[in-house]
Amino acid sequence: MAPAEGACAPLNPAFVAQMEALLGAEAPAFCAALEAPAALALRVNPARPAAGELRPLFARDPVPWAENGYYLLPGARPGAGLSHFCGAFYVQEASAMLPAALLDVRPGQRVLDLCAAPGGKSSQLAAALGGEGLLISNEPEPKRAKVLAGNLERLGVPNAIVVNEYPEKLARKWPGFFDAVLVDAPCSGEGMFRREPDSRSQWQPNSPAGCAKRQAGILDRAAELLRPGGRLVYSTCTYNTAENEETVAAFLARHPEFSPGDFSVPGLSSIAPGQWKIYPHRVRGDGQFAALLLKAPGPAPALRPPAPEKAALALWKEFTAQFGFPGPGVPRMWGEFLTLLPEDTPDLSGVRVVQPGLILAQARGRRLEPAHALAMALDSLPGAELSDEAALAFARGEAVPWEGRGYLVARWRGMPLGWGKASDGLLKNHLPKGLRRANLEKF
Questions:
Q1: What is the CA radius of gyration of the chain?
Q2: Which pTM value belongs to this model?
Q3: Catalytic site residues?
Q4: I need a surface site. Which of 97, 118, 142, 225 has the fewest CB within 10 A?
């Protein structure tokens, strides 16, 4: 095989040959684009009203295919400021916003993100649900599942359940349950060669075939989880046909109840019915493939809402008396924590749950201590609006001056930082130690 030359020289020659077969005369332009800056972007969290006012500091041009998505300005560092700490933004590569947009979820639906960490696509699905319905975000790797849960908590998502299972178990547990399923499958990662150059050395000529075999199994389980008449989006961050077009074709051959879906994507043209692919030399985005697949209509299984628990109901009465009604749902105990499950939650017995809906409070004997997740999720809680300097101090874990008594949500520009407890002229800091941040900036 001839060695790679010119702009393609840093790449595996087998990968270059693959791209030359796909792109022909465009291959040098593609290779050159991999040396350009990545198309990083952010999404504005619609649950944080002040985010729209702060967004022009970091990002201006809209991402065509993503609601609330904007390309970052050169040198922008939104993750270094108070606004990100408060959950105003999620920083994400622009092309990675395409799959969730294709799923086109609506408030009130039951949605599954089957391979969800670190949470960018799940948070986009949560924004589309607008707090109504159910989002189950699954991640098989335990450490990544915790990162996923932390991101959804920071963004104030009230109706998500984070689980840590392999798709096979979930398909046995919840067949035909979901209105929409997203499979952002593990892949050979060719689309990350620009923003993560170290990933280039991990690619091998046999990588795509091995990934395609794994992806086929995940897709088959996703088909079982989807209800008749539902929507399935399959996506990868890679270019090769083995993991993309061929995987979709083989899936459709195995599952005649599925057909390609039609969807209008601003700024993009489909490469085949129900399929889109982003190349960095053609579009302002890194590598991404996505396919929309529709399941034929038919009877759906009956829902079984979670049963009430006596222990949870007793604490629920005490909680609502102290903090008010947090919204509809089913109160349940999760160890010593009182949580609120979305009303459409399926049976969770035997499932490894990382975050069980909205965590409301921790029971400490007869006393309830409100949870950080509650502060991030509800605007209706009593609060203390802090100045820039006081907010920075609070984020570091310090107490700040405040007159009054009782639990208050510390806020900056109306956005939540976390709980404090006011007494003796101070708002004493209840921010979890693992979340405290020094050196944040006033933006």
A1: 23
A2: 0.96
A3: 237
A4: 142
